[in-house]
Amino acid sequence: MKRSSKSCEIHHVIHSAVSNNYFEITELLLKHGAKINKEKNDYKASLLQIAVENDNKEITEFLVSNGADVNSKNGEGKTPLFYAVENDNKDIVEFLISHGADVNISELINGKIPMHYAIDNNNNKDIVEILVSHGSNVNKYNIIHMTVQKDNKDIVELLIAHGANPHQINLFGKTPFQIAVENQNFEIMELLLLNGAITS
Q1: Residue 175 lies in a domain
Q2: Which pLDDT score, from 0 to 100, does residue 62 have?
């Protein structure tokens, strides 16, 4: 079904407004027919995702308060939470989760969850703590291996305290301890040994 010319115009203008952080224009267009959850761009990104990618908390909060779907996925299967985590934006991460963002939702390409991005991109303990405290799966797709590879003892300790398996074997047949040995990280080696890591 084709959009009307007015609908098409609103669609393009509201994407431009959100992309350029124009709060008042975004607000005006939503009052005059823009559909908060239907207006997606060519990459299937929602208005909320664009606002989050731009680190714009004001527009993010406005969209959510007006019914934006916090778990809407783009063409890669990513939700707005993925982008808040990638941007290292603790405030928006907390806001989205408090409004129902799923911390264990997987993207389409490789099945990663937001926790993978928290560790792989930023290694930010504060964001990892937020995700863990809201039930993020600490044993999903070798998260502990990634953390050991990043040499972040504090996050390794945090993950183990929340149930991460120190015996887990990754796709290459390695345990977290073996990765710590390869990295010559004695502090993490000791931490893993204290938690019963497999050494052979």
Answers
A1: yes
A2: 96
Number of C-beta neighbours around residue 184 at 10 A = 9
**158 domain residue, yes or no:** yes
The CATH number of residue 196's host domain is 1.25.40.20
CA distances from residue 34 to 52, 65, 196 in whole angstroms, order as listed: 19, 15, 56
pTM of the model: 0.89
Region of residue 98 (left: phi > 0; alpha: psi -120 to 50; beta: else): alpha
pLDDT of 79 > 60? The answer is yes
Domain count, the chain: 1
* pLDDT tens-digit readout, 55-65: 999 999 999 99
Q: Which domain holds residue 195?
A: 139-200
pLDDT tens figures, 7-47 = 556 667 888 899 999 999 999 988 887 888 775 666 678 99
Q: Is the C-alpha dihedral spanning 184, 190, 192, 197 positive or negative? A: positive
Dihedral sign, CA of 161, 138, 133, 56?
Answer: positive
